[in-house]
Amino acid sequence: MDIVILIGRIAFALLFIASGYAHFSKTAAMTGYAESLGVKPAKPLVLLSGLFLIVGGAMVATGAWADVGALVLVAFLLPTAFLMHPFWKFEGEQQQTEMVSFMKDLSLAGAALALFGLFVTVGSDLGYTITGPIFP
User: Under DSSP, is residue 73 helix (H, G, I), strand (E, B) or coil?
Assistant: First the structure.
């Protein structure tokens, strides 16, 4: 079962690592979008959130304090859902698009919390990790 959990961790983390890379490779576009939603200071927050994505995703994928990595992803996902996807401010097709993104972020936050619980519950018995969890 350890290999299944490893594959799941890597598959889950790839989305965040790729998105984090985009925060650095497409900073101007992401900054403009964040500014259009009233997020300030947009550029530092885009870069900081990119760092959260890459670090949290890498921690989950490698199993280096994966419990902390899962919480880092939650710390990115929950504010992002509300700040970047406020579907209640839109109408029509854009409202639907933002609602899907909002719900995706909430669902991913739930999955990250479930992984956090798994990492803490199983502890150092979880195979194919670099370290055990920090949280007891």
Answer: helix
